[in-house]
Design goal:
The complex is a heterodimer of chains A (248) and B (175).
Chain A lengths: L1 H26 L11 H4 L4 H4 L37 E10 L5 E2 L4 E5 L16 E2 L9 E5 L5 E7 L10 E7 L5 E8 L7 H5 L29 E5 L3 E10 L2
Parallel strand pairs in A: 1-10
Antiparallel strand pairs in A: 1-2, 1-6, 3-5, 3-7, 7-8, 9-10
Chain B lengths: L3 E11 L6 H18 L11 H7 L6 H6 L3 H5 L19 E10 L9 E8 L2 E7 L2 E6 L10 E4 L4 E7 L3 H6 L2
Antiparallel strand pairs in B: 1-3, 1-4, 1-7, 2-3, 4-5, 5-6
Classes of the chains: A alpha+beta (248), B alpha+beta (175).
Chain lengths: 248, 175
């Protein structure tokens, strides 16, 4: 304890001795204080008074750069796999305009997201600290812009399933300027020769699986318009195609 | 004071007053992404602010995660060095590899109310001494007997985030 106090007093002394030099160093650039955009957030903090020098710190004095460049959101990519393991699946989604005789809708933004083989979405546990090295936090989420034929193509894995839901892919279609046009989900065909049966829930099997007719989203789709066409097999991968009409 | 190992946290607030190019791009792109993503939680268009969505719509707490995809690419442009924080020689020096993105406020109809925070968590530093309002720290690991140090000022939005306590007997030895 005594030693600590002595050290404390010593540190004060050192601080006092070095203070004039430090103050003169920060005096000339006082208007370029580092966190200059902060004032509107929490107002003046107690720290300003206790540190004595406030936020008077040396301004950056370095060679200019690196020069920032515009970067799209990490969703903008065709391959959304991000290292998730599973059977390869190519999804081709055509967007048509239901207000214009179902003509192809070019330039629309299409977001998709689905769960991994275990039935987990990337957002689970995603609200905490992230590592810059681990770039695949937004796995199995992607965004593409429709081409002249209204088509977007994603490369992913066949989704797993989780309790209470049939296999599905979420879709959100926006105008080019970002106005929501349609929020929907893509269902998968069922039956003995279907991909859902072939994949067999990966390691889970199909015990406890929710089929489309019992699914709280798909059960009212008696015409099956939300059900995609899925071909392929577990060796070569699967191809999913569906056309979605949106009111643009 | 015996040396201790600490990590620092710098909470960088970006709002409509941003002037630097990097900050402006992060501001614009996170706002655009918020407007895209928020529509999923606002399908009846009853709400306009992030605060309202958070209070009334289950799952809206995922919005910071969803919006953070708009700024990950910008983080990589920083090359793992915390922005704004310089040592007393005026150089950026503080390495980081972990961050946390926050939506503080936003409003679907008023961009001026969009405000985000990026928390930068530094790599571990050796804290040797405190000189006035300055921490004397060094980056690790260093093996030379002459340890190269940085003087960094305590300042608003910069705090010691974690402290790795030294073994008590080490402290006793120095008495």
């Amino acid at each position: 304890m005594i030693m600590e106090r002595k050290n404390f007093l010593k540190s004060l002394l050192v601080g006092a001795v070095s203070a004039p030099a430090l103050l003169s160093a920060c005096g000339k650039d006082a208007d370029e204080v580092t966190p200059s955009t902060d004032s509107s957030t929490t107002g003046t903090t107690g720290g300003t008074t206790t540190t004595g020098s406030g936020n008077c710190t040396v301004a950056p004095t370095e060679t200019e750069g690196p020069f920032p460049t515009k970067v799209p959101a990490s969703y903008v990519r065709s391959d959304i796999t991000d290292g998730r393991t599973g059977y390869k699946m190519t999804a081709k989604i055509s967007i048509t305009n239901s207000n214009s005789s179902c003509a192809a809708l070019a330039g629309a933004l299409v977001d998709i997201w689905h769960c991994d083989a275990e039935g987990n979405y990337s957002e689970y546990g995603g609200s905490g600290m992230q590592s810059t090295n681990y770039t695949s936090v937004h796995f199995l989420r992607g965004r593409q812009t429709t081409d002249a034929n209204g088509l977007v193509t994603f490369t992913s894995i066949f989704p797993g399933w989780y309790s209470g839901r049939a296999t599905h892919i979420h879709v959100h279609v926006y105008t080019a300027s970002g106005t929501s046009l349609k929020i929907t989900q893509i269902a998968f065909p069922e039956g003995t020769s279907s991909a859902v049966v072939a994949v067999n829930g990966y390691k889970k099997g199909m015990t406890g699986y929710t089929y489309n007719k019992s699914d709280n989203v798909f059960s009212d789709d008696t015409a099956g318009v939300e059900i995609a066409t899925v071909t392929g097999n577990t060796t070569d991968g699967f191809q999913l195609t569906i056309s979605l009409g949106v009111p643009a | 004071m015996p040396d201790r190992t600490i990590t620092l946290c710098y909470r960088k607030i970006i709002d409509s007053s941003a002037v630097k190019p990097w900050e402006k791009m992060v501001f614009e792109d996170t706002y655009a992404e918020f407007r895209l993503q928020a529509q999923y939680y606002n399908q009846e268009q009853k709400y306009r602010s992030y605060g309202e969505l958070l209070q009334h719509v289950p799952g809206a707490d995922k919005l910071p995660f969803l919006v953070s995809a708009a700024m990950r690419g910008y983080l990589q442009q920083l090359k793992d060095i915390v922005p704004d924080i310089v040592d007393n020689l005026g150089r950026h020096f503080l390495p980081f590899s972990k961050f946390q993105f926050e939506l503080i406020n936003s409003d679907l109809l008023d961009k001026a109310r969009h405000q985000i925070g990026i928390n930068f968590y530094s790599e571990p530093l050796r804290w040797h001494d405190t000189l006035g309002a300055y921490l004397l720290v060094s980056l690790q690991p260093q093996v030379a007997s002459d340890v190269l140090t940085h003087l960094v000022a305590l300042q608003p939005y910069l705090a010691i985030y974690s402290l790795q306590a030294e073994a008590q007997n080490h402290e006793a030895d120095t008495r």
